[in-house]
Predict the structure.
Amino acid sequence: MNPNLMTDDELAAALAEDRPGPHVTAEAMAKRVRDAQYTVLPNSTVTICNITLDNGYSVRGESACVDPANYDADIGRKIAHDDAFRKLWPLFGFLLAEQRYQARGG
């Protein structure tokens, strides 16, 4: 691990500090999630997660296990969900930037 990078705990603590400006949070994004559906591709250990937001837009994430003997469906769903959820960050960041731009008369 790179010693110059923050750990997950350090990052969470830094983000929890009082910040003066608007920002995207996982909690705010999670409130917009309407549904999450999971599919395991036939004859594989690939799990796909499709997250659908309240406005109907969806993103997908996936996980894969190299050796079927190690496949665990719960772990596959968790990793696929996390992969899909990470894809929401730039979308919500763009939405926040657009809202700020419009508020300034853009």
Remarks:
- The mean pLDDT is 92.
- The chain is about 40% helix and 20% strand.
- The longest helix spans residues 88-103.
